[in-house]
């Protein structure tokens, strides 16, 4: 077994597996592990293309509407920007009005989760994790409009 938990850059975690260990950074520079932030809860985890991606922020707003309609079944919502504390702060500021539910962090490099850059476009993606951290839904794309599907999220949480 390899000691490198990072998936290949052209492959995100598959259904039935777990996300690799990721160190998250908050807007104030706090560092925590993804597993500690999720803390045994089901979760919708959205990797943003950038901290300012309007499409990613629209996805966050959709997740908020799903929460408000009772469709998240108590799942946490993590919004992850690539970069560090400054990007987490930017994403948090932009998401605050659209999705107050979102727990906003930065991941450093999305490649740690298998989300690569293609032609300078950072892949974004949405993963639904069950309460044991197993990936129940995964949708990624270099085009942010294709990295989220509300019906897939609902089905994975059902």
UniProtKB/TrEMBL annotation:
This is Peroxiredoxin. The lineage of its organism: Bacteria, Bacillati, Actinomycetota, Actinomycetes, Micrococcales. Signal peptide: none annotated. Residues 1-21 are annotated as: Disordered. Residues 13-158 form the Thioredoxin domain. PROSITE patterns: THIOREDOXIN_2 (PS51352). It holds the Pfam family Redoxin. It comes from Isoptericola halotolerans.
């Amino acid at each position: 077994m390899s000691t490198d938990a990072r998936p290949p850059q052209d492959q995100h975690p598959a259904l039935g597996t777990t996300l690799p260990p990721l160190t998250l950074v908050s807007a104030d520079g706090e560092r925590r592990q993804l597993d500690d932030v999720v803390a045994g809860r089901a979760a919708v985890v959205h990797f943003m293309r950038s901290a300012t991606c309007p499409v990613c922020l629209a996805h966050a707003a959709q997740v908020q509407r799903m929460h408000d309609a009772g469709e998240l079944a108590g799942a946490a919502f993590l919004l992850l920007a690539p970069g560090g504390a400054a990007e987490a702060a930017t994403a948090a500021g932009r998401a605050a009005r659209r999705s107050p539910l979102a727990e906003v962090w930065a991941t450093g490099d999305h490649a740690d989760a298998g989300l690569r850059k293609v032609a300078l476009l950072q892949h974004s993606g949405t993963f639904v994790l069950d309460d044991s951290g197993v990936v129940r839904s995964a949708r990624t794309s270099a085009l942010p409009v294709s990295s989220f599907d509300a019906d897939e999220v609902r089905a994975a949480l059902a």
